[in-house]
Structure formats: structure tokens, C-alpha cells
Amino acid sequence: MKINKLEYYDEKSDWKLEAVEFSPNLNLLVGVSGAGKTRILQAIGSLKAIANGKSLNGVKWSIDFSTKNNINYYWSGQFETKDSSSIINSESSQEDSVKIINETLKCNQNIVVQRTENEIIFNGLKTPKLSPFESAIELLKQEDIISSVKAELDRIILTDSRQSFDQIWRLPISFLKKHEKYSLLMLKESDLPIQVKLEIIYRFFPDEFEKIKQAFISIFNHVSDVKIETLKDEEVPLALSDLLKEATIVRIKEKGVDNWIQNISSGMFKTLMYISELYLSPDDCVILIDEFENSLGVNCIDSVTELIVNHKKSQFIITSHHPYIINNISPAYWKIVTRQGGLVTVKTAKDFHISESRQKAFIDLINVLQDDEEEDSED
Fold this sequence. Notes:
There is one protein chain. Helix 7 crosses helix 9, helix 8 packs across helix 9 and helix 9 runs parallel beside helix 10. The chain has 2 domains: about 260 residues, 3-Layer(aba) Sandwich (Rossmann fold), CATH 3.40.50; about 100 residues, no CATH class. The strands form 2 sheets. The chain has a 14-stranded mixed β-sheet with strand order 9-8-7-6-5-4-1-2-17-16-3-15-14-10, sandwiched between helices. Strands 11-13-12 form a 3-stranded antiparallel β-sheet, covered by helices on one side. Helix 10 links the parallel strand 14 and strand 15. The chain is built from 12 helices and 17 strands. It starts with a strand and ends with a helix. The chain is an alpha/beta fold.
């Protein structure tokens, strides 16, 4: 899946994203704090939620996206807007839900779903009365063409850079046996936590784990080896023996050191999780990362940035305030986010006549953002 164009409006909070076009591989959202970069990622993530049945008060959207098989989809819709009090005080069994006012789904310009408040037309035929609170993609997901659309939208992956990954996790042998017959494709497309995917890869797909390990070692060149194993009995306090039974941990071996190290730094561990996310996400997905430099050490940022830039299988939409990242990603991939009140606009570097020279482009960008910040403060 690749997002081509997106428009989003949240009437309840009076926040509107004007139509924005995305590049097929890498998009770096830059802008002053509060411009709306994070909220753009959240808006994209909400479309996946809507496709899976979530009801969002006052939301209106339209998205144009395509698949690796060059099938183009257009999906738009609108929920009614209700006062929070009317939702809370509702006596309906759907007390936290709002109705869909309209919805349209097109495949290669052909209308698949046309919906109003009163009816749903699917492939030219009126359907039986269905829930007014859920998207047609959720309601008709058993239909082949709709299931394909849902599968594409499920390829939206929102990565929380502020998430603190547990360095010790419990994975019973029974769970591993349940997944030992997974194919690599099945594993990538599963919604398992990334640590769990990594352990399964370590145990059952050694060649794939080797790729992740070598990418990690290329960043931390003082490391010679990486393994994943259960904690030894002597490492577990007696009081926690039941809790940490079958607990798993990552160990590294450094060059010139015989012993395996258990307590690796949080920055190293997070880098390993990022690398694993890149290798173990399904191909042709949309990966959203908000300020992905968070918790990465200065020695990691350049290498992880390079991994993302060179990863051609998926579409990345990321935000960053870090000068190194912005300065080392071509202005051709910049999406400059500005805001006036509740209206958010995204433009390219060319729209602001920013130089194609990376060194001068960064200075031009700073000037653009300063002008935008001054205009916003005047408003």
C-alpha cells in the first residue's frame, strides 16, 4: 500500500488537513512545534481504526492509495458530529458511537460502495439494513474486494518512538510451538509485538535473524554477536521465579570480551527494535514514525536514518526535529507543515523555492519555519 493523497477534517476540534500528496517511499514531515505533524500521523492511523469498525465523532476523510499490483483505491466518508454530552448521556447500546453520514469506495475509478444515511449500495445493489455506526469496509469485509481493501489499510503501522520496550519479556514454549509453523510472510503480517516476532525469527528463521544482527553490528561495530535466550535460574530472584519463568532477554557479545552481556543500553535495544521493525514489517506497508530520533544515541541516528532512506519496500511518513536527520534527507522528500488556526497545510520544498543544495536547503528551511512561526504568533 502507498498513500497517494489524503484529506482529513475533525469538525469536533475544528482541525482540518488540506489535501496533501505523499511520495511513494519517504516523506519527512518538518515544521515548528504545534504545526500538526504528529496529528497528521494520528489521522492516518485513525483510518485504519475506522476500517476496523471504530466510530469517530465529527471526522470526515478522503484517501487515495494504491497497491503493489497498481490497483488504485479512493475511500471517503463522514461521521456525524455530536456534542460529547449527548454521546455520554445516550441511552443507546451504541452510546459511544456516531453514525456515518456518507461513504464512498472506488476501485480504479469504479464505484464499489456508495452510502448515505439511509442505505448502502454495494456493486450496484442495495444491501440489507446494516449498522449505521461502522464503515462499509468493516461491515462488508467478507466480500473479496472489500477484504482486499481492509488488508491494505491494515498495513498502516504506527510506531511510537516514545514507547519504552521491555528488555525482558515472557514467551512460553507453548506459544512458540503454536507459531513455529508460521511462514515468514505470515509472521510479518501478524500483529504480534516486535519483540515476539524477533524471538520467533531467532528460533525458526536463522537466516533472517542474521540479516537483522548484521545490520545491528554495522551500527555498533564493537559488538561481535547477538543472541536471544531465556534467563538462567541463577539470574532470577527467587521471589520472581514464577513471574519470570520462561522470560526472554537479548544478550550481546563485544569484541575481545568472552562473556555475554545482559544489560545492554536502552538506546542499543531500541535501535535493535527499529531494525527489527524494518525487517519484520510486511512488504508494501505504510510505516508512521513520530520523532523517531527519540531515545536513539547520537551514534545511532545517522545509521538508522540511512536504513530508512534505503528501505524501498515500504512507504515511510516520519516526523523529526533533529537537524542531522533533516539535513541528511534530500529536500525532495521534505513535506513542510504549516498551520493557521485549525487549518494545516503541507507543501514541498519546491513550493517554498528551497534550494536543491542540501547545505543551503537547511538554511532556507529554517527561514521558512521562522517566518511561519512569526505569522502564527501574530495571528
